[in-house]
Amino acid sequence: MATTALTGFSMMSLLSLGYLSWDLMSPNQVENEPVQTFGDASPVPQPPHIIFILTDDQGFNDIGYHSSDIRTPALDKLAADGVKLENYYIQPICTPSRSQFITGRYQIHTGLQHSIIRPRQPNCLPFDHVTLPQRLQQLGYSTHMVGKWHLGFYKKECLPTRRGFDTYFGSLTGSVNYYTYNSCDGPGLCGFDLHEGETVAWDQKGKYSTHLYTQRVRKILATHDPQSQPLFIFLSFQAVHTPLQSPREYIYPYRELGNVARRKYAAMVSTVDEAVRNITYALRKYGYYQNSVVIFSTDNGGQPLSGGSNWPLRGRKGTYWEGGVRGLGFVHSPLLRKKRRVSKALVHITDWYPTLVGLAGGNESLTEGVDGYNVWETISEGKESPRLEILHNIDPLYNHARSGSLQKGYGIWNTAVQASIRAGDWKLLTGDPGYGDWTPPQMLPGFPSSWWNLERHTEPRKSVWLFNISGDPYERFDLSEQRPDVVKELLARLVYYNRTAVPVRYPSEDPRADPHLNGGAWVPWVGDEEEYSWDSVYQKKKNTDWKKKLKLSKSRSFFRRLNTRIMSNRI
Fold it and tell me: Coil, strand, or helix at residue 510?
C-alpha cells in the first residue's frame, strides 16, 4: 500500500462527512431482512461478492442526484442507501482510468501516462504488474469481465483472459457501434470488435451493447453458486461513450430536451440505469445480495460536445480541470456500517485495488508497491481517509506550453510540461491542462465550432495554476501568484514523483493490425514470441512544417463543422 509521506507541508484533515436522512428502504431489500456487517458476532462465511460497474464518459452532472434533466431512479436509490463519494477522483480519459483500477498504480509507474492505447499500437498493460483480478484469483475468487477493455490486445498475452479474468465478453478497442460492433481507427480502417473469451463473437451482432452486457452479467449470476465461491465481476459499460445510440423507446421520455445530443445522451444514461436495476435484482434473486459490495464509478469526465455535462465543474473529458478528473462514484452494500450518507473523504481510482484485495481477505503484502490505499474503513465506517494527495499525472509528451519554463517553475520544475497534483486542499496544474471553460448543460450544438476554443477565464500565456479545491471546487480563483510558497511545495512533489516514473510506452502504429488482414476483426496480430523494444518510443517528434499544420487545422475545422451538422439532425 502507498505510504508516501508529505514532508514540510501542513495539511488540513480531508474528512468532512455529511448525512442524508432517508426513510426509504433499499430497492433491493425486503422489510425486516437481517443485514450482516463485518465485525458481527456471527462472521461472514466467505469474502463478499464484488460487482464493480464502470461507465464511460458519464459526466459529474449526468446522474439524477446531481442533475435536473436526467432521470436515474435506480442509481439514485442505490446511492442514497449506500455511501456517495463526493471527493472521488479518476483520470481524464479511458485507458489511464482502467489501468489504474486494474493495477492500483499511477500511470507514471506503468508507462501509460500519455493518451490512450490506440487499436493499431503494439502496446498493452505491462506484464510485470500483478492485476487486481489475478490477486482475487489467488484469494479464491471466480473472476469475470464484461464490456470495454481498452488496455491493449496486440498479442494474446494482453487479453483479459490472460490478465486474471476467468471469462471475458466485450470489446477490446475504445469505441464501437452499439449494434454492429464496428470499430474504426481511421478512414477504411474498420473491423468487428466483440469477443467471447479469445474468439470473435460474430453471432451477437445486432444486439444493443448495454442490454447484451447486462444479460451476460445476469447469466453469470444465475449459473454461479454464491455459497461455494466468492465472485468478482468487472462490468465495464461502453455507455455512454459516443456514438450516441440507444433504442428509440428510451429517447421518447426526453423529447422535451431541445439539445439533440443531450437528448440522445440522456437516453443512453437511462439504459445504464435500467441495467443496474436489473443486475441488483439478479443479485437478490440468486442469493448474492446480503454478502455483496456494489461499486459504481465513471472512468472520466463528460464530453459536452457529445451531450455530457460536468456542470458546475470546470473543463471536460481529456482535461485535468475538475470536470475531467472528478468522478461520479458510490458504494452500495449491506456490509456497510454507516449507510445513507455522503462522504467527502479523498478517494482515488487506484484505491480500489488495495481496498478490494483487503475485502477479499488479502494482507498488505499483496498490495506492496501500489499507489492506492485501502479506504474500506473510510467508506464503511466514516473514518478519515489515509489518502492525503493524488498525482493526477505527469505527461512529458503532451504539447508543451509555450509560456512554460524552468524559470517560471522557480528552478524546480519546467512548467511547460503538462502535470497536475492534488495535496490536501490544494491543486496545482502546469503546462496545458486542456480546455478550461465552464460549460452549462443544454448548450445547443448549432453554434460556430470556433466558440469551443474561447477560453473566457484562462490566460493564454499562463503555465501554472493553483486552487484551493476545498473552498473553490469550481476552480475560479487562481492563487498561484498569492501563494508561491504552496506552488513551490507542490512543484517539489512533482519532481519527487517524476523521479519514480518509467519511460512512456507509446509506440508507432503497426500496419499488421489492419482488420482487413485479420479476417475483418480487431484481434491480436503479433505472436507471443515477438518482443518489442520500448527504449525509444517516448521520443517526441517535432513538426516544424507550418504548411502541414495549417492543412491539418483546416481539416479539423471541416470535421468539427460536419460533426455539428450531423448532431443537429432531429430524430
Answer: coil
Secondary structure of 435-467 in the HEC alphabet? Answer: CCCCCCCCCCCCCCHHHHHCCCCCCCCCCEEEE
Is it true that the peptide bond before 523 is cis, omega within 30 degrees of 0?
no
Compute φ and ψ for 421, nearest 5 degrees.
-145, 145
Of the listed 150, 224, 241, 392, which one is catalytic? 150
Calculate helix-pair angle for 73-80, 260-285, nearest 10 degrees. 60
4: confidence class by pLDDT, cuts 50, 70, 90: very low
* pLDDT for 546: 36
Q: Cell 505472436 sits at which residue?
A: 527
Beta strands in 226-345 (DSSP E): 231-236, 292-298, 329-332, 341-343
Look up 150 and say whether it is catalytic: yes
Taking only the tens place, the pLDDT of each residue in 125-151 is 999 999 999 999 999 999 999 999 999
246, amino acid identity: S
pLDDT higher than threshold 70 for residue 312: yes
Catalytic, 158? Answer: no
Which residues fall within 8 angstroms of residue 230, CB to CB, at 6 or more apart? 46, 47, 48, 49, 50, 140, 141, 142, 360
Q: For the purposes of burial, counting CB atoms within 10 Å of the CB of 325, is it exposed (0-12), middle (13-18) or buried (19 or more)?
A: buried
**What is the model's pTM?**
0.86
Of residues 94, 124, 158, 190, which has the active-site annotation? 94
Residue 293: name the closest of 352, 246, 207, 368 by CA.
Answer: 352
pLDDT tens track for 320-379: 999 999 999 999 999 999 999 999 999 999 999 999 999 999 999 999 999 999 999 999
C-alpha cell at 236: 465495464
pLDDT digits (tens, 9 = 90+) for 521-567: 999 999 877 765 544 444 444 443 433 434 444 444 444 444 433 33
Q: In 3-state terms, what secondary structure has residue 281?
A: helix
Decide: 109 and 501 in contact? Cβ < 8 Å.
yes
- The pLDDT of 459-473, averaged and rounded, is 89
Q: Which helix (H) or strand (E) holds 374?
A: none
CA 222 to chain centre: 28
pLDDT tens digit sequence for 485-513 = 999 999 999 999 999 999 999 999 999 99
